[in-house]
Specification:
The complex is a heterodimer of chains A (257) and B (309).
Chain A (H helix, E strand, L loop, with lengths): L1 H32 L3 H20 L28 H8 L6 E6 L5 E4 H6 L3 E8 L5 E10 H8 L7 E9 L6 E7 H4 L5 E6 L2 E2 L9 E3 L12 E7 L12 H4 L9
Parallel strand pairs in A: 1-10
Antiparallel strand pairs in A: 1-2, 3-4, 4-7, 5-6, 5-10, 7-8, 7-9
Chain B lengths: L1 H36 L1 E4 L3 H25 L4 E2 L12 E7 L5 E8 L2 E4 L5 E5 L2 E5 L13 H28 L2 H6 L3 H5 L1 H9 L14 H24 L2 H6 L2 H6 L2 H28 L2 H9 L2 E4 L10
Antiparallel strand pairs in B: 1-8, 2-3, 3-4, 4-5, 6-7
């Protein structure tokens, strides 16, 4: 009798635990699919950003490495080739006619050729690229500090974000990759518009002819195939309104963690 | 014949009833004696109980959302970078010629194990799919890195605030010094205690009011070693924090090493959790649960201590 009771009690506890587990899992999945709950979870993003900025300020430098640390194979992720007619033609011509307009909330909008970009004082840095998926590679990047380009454009006081529009289409609906940085990250000494990787002109899988490097942020911030730069007060009106292609898919705008 | 049968049955029923009543009576006597003999002891303060359950919820969410994040790149490396050809640990799915996933493989160093259905490849809506950990242990279930990160970093804050609250409380109220830090005597008795644990012989009487050496070492390690270690290795994975504290990279031997240590810490937490639950069940589920909900823990009298054994 006692054994039978124990059996049913154990059975009940087991069933209750399994039931609670299933309820928890489906509950978490259900919560994730609501409109409001991800917003609650995302409230931590602002806290993380503020605290990290408190420590990092505008000046803390990402670690730099030596040539001995370079990854034998630097993984190319995301778009490996934009493949559009315009891009293919530009690539066939070695990007000779590639122009990057710098516009928006600036006193002095201008258009840069690759030669103009190379004419800026350059910075070379060996840094670690951390993908949001979890892997890391080390590469050497040469480019023009974004700060010098912004100085030339002379932002208006209202300008808060720098938006990078890219040449790689992300779907058939006409949306292209884009990203944004605030002025603190944009003016950071290690934030450069890179045109060389490991001493060679940037290869197509890595964002030829120009990609962004912002070394205190995760990989998806480092926009490849940059073809236009705009200074804005807010990015709410651009595409999905979250400040970047992956941000519009639910990734956080603050990519410092 | 019929009447005799009925009366025989009645007699048996009567005897059974008397027996049952007798059993009930003796059970009541035993219960009353037990209730009067045992001592209720206020074991956990309200603060400790609240922090314990918040911590339990956070750790569960952190583990499951962490496995979701891990599944985005189910491989571990040692050093600064990912040496994609030589992972330290890797969970992957193998395809046949037609491109269907047919096998889940767990690779540790040079060894490969077939872990189909569990690691490397598991069933998602009846379909064998390549994924590190199966969907019934990841949060949320389907592959969804962005959402896993939202859960992980929201609950990380609660876990850290909760953990700091506990450590501060435990140090200020002397709970850590009196109850959690192992003493010299604890270390000396450790051999006997391991034997007692293996025999499932749990302390009674006065001894049950204190944590024994194994409990102290377990709680101390989890709270003061594993907790800080998993937070610091987590921070080492943040490129912004690496720019602030590059020393973290030096301490853990690189970002990918930190990720691997973070993973090992997570599974150490899981190991602690499993042992913790098993010990709770073996040493009295309801008594332990009651003490962590209401604070009151019943002490069984030690037969050796009381004269009327």
């Amino acid at each position: 009798m006692a054994d039978a009771n124990r059996g049913t009690r154990r059975g009940f506890l087991g069933a209750a635990a399994a039931g609670a587990g299933t309820l928890l899992l489906s509950g978490c999945r259900g919560l994730s699919e609501t409109h409001w709950f991800p917003k609650v979870l995302d409230s931590a993003e602002g806290l993380t950003k503020r605290i990290q900025r408190l420590f990092a300020g505008s000046w803390s430098l990402a670690p730099e490495y030596s040539k001995a640390d370079l990854s034998p194979v630097f993984k190319a992720n995301g778009t490996l080739n934009p493949g559009t007619t315009a891009y293919n033609m530009a690539a066939a011509d070695n990007f000779r006619d590639w122009r990057i307009p710098v516009s928006g909330l600036v006193k002095n909008p201008f258009v840069m050729s690759l030669n103009d970009l190379r004419a800026f004082p350059s910075r070379t840095q060996i840094t670690r690229h951390d993908c949001v998926e979890g892997w890391s590679c080390i590469g050497e990047w040469t480019g023009a500090p974004l700060r010098l380009i912004l100085d030339k454009a002379d932002p208006l006081p209202k300008a808060r974000y720098v938006v990078f529009y890219c040449a790689d289409p992300m779907s058939d609906n006409g949306d292209y990759y884009y990203e944004s940085l605030d002025l603190i990250e944009a003016c950071h000494p290690q934030t450069i518009l890179a045109y060389e990787m490991n001493g060679q002109p940037l290869a197509i899988p890595h964002g030829a002819p120009v990609r962004l490097r912002c070394e205190r942020q995760l990989g998806y911030k480092h926009a490849k195939y940059v073809e236009r730069i705009e200074l804005v007060e807010s990015f709410a009106h651009i595409n999905g309104g979250k400040g970047g292609y992956w941000e519009d898919q639910g990734y956080t705008w603050w990519a410092g963690i | 014949m019929e009447t005799r049968l009925i009366s025989g049955l009645e007699a048996r029923l009567r005897a059974a009833r008397a027996q049952a009543a007798g059993a009930w009576q003796s059970y009541l006597v035993w219960w009353r004696e037990r209730m009067t003999k045992r001592e209720l002891f206020y074991r956990h303060t309200g603060m400790v109980r609240a922090l314990h359950w918040i911590n339990a919820l956070c750790l569960l969410v952190m583990l499951m959302s962490g496995l979701q994040i891990f599944n985005a790149h189910p491989a571990l490396y040692w050093g600064q970078i990912s040496n994609f050809d030589h992972p330290f640990v890797s969970l992957f799915g193998e395809q046949d010629n037609a491109g269907h996933i047919v096998k889940g493989v767990t690779q540790i160093g040079h060894w490969q194990f077939n872990t189909t259905g569990l690691f490397g490849a598991s069933y998602e809506d009846g379909q064998l799919t390549a994924r590190g950990f199966p969907d019934w242990v990841t949060l949320p279930g389907p592959q969804w890195l962005a959402m896993g990160r939202l859960w992980h970093f929201f609950f990380a804050w609660i876990l850290v605030i909760n953990g700091l609250a506990f450590i501060t409380y435990a140090l200020v109220k002397q709970h850590a010094q009196k109850d959690l830090f192992p003493t010299r005597a604890d270390i000396r008795h450790i051999g006997r205690e391991i034997l007692d644990h293996l025999r499932l012989r749990f302390p009674k009487g006065e001894a049950a009011k204190r944590y024994n050496a194994l409990q102290k070492i377990a709680y101390f390690t989890v709270i003061f070693v594993l907790g800080p270690l998993i937070v610091l290795t987590g921070l080492t994975m943040s490129p912004t924090m690496d720019s602030v504290f590059p020393g973290l990279l030096w301490v853990f031997g690189g970002r990918q090493s930190a990720r691997t240590i973070h993973f090992i810490c997570a599974f150490s937490f899981l190991g602690f959790f499993i042992i913790h639950i098993v010990m709770v069940v073996l040493s009295g589920t309801w008594n332990n649960l009651r003490s962590m909900i209401t604070g009151w823990y019943a002490i069984e009298p030690d037969e050796k201590e009381t004269s009327h054994g």
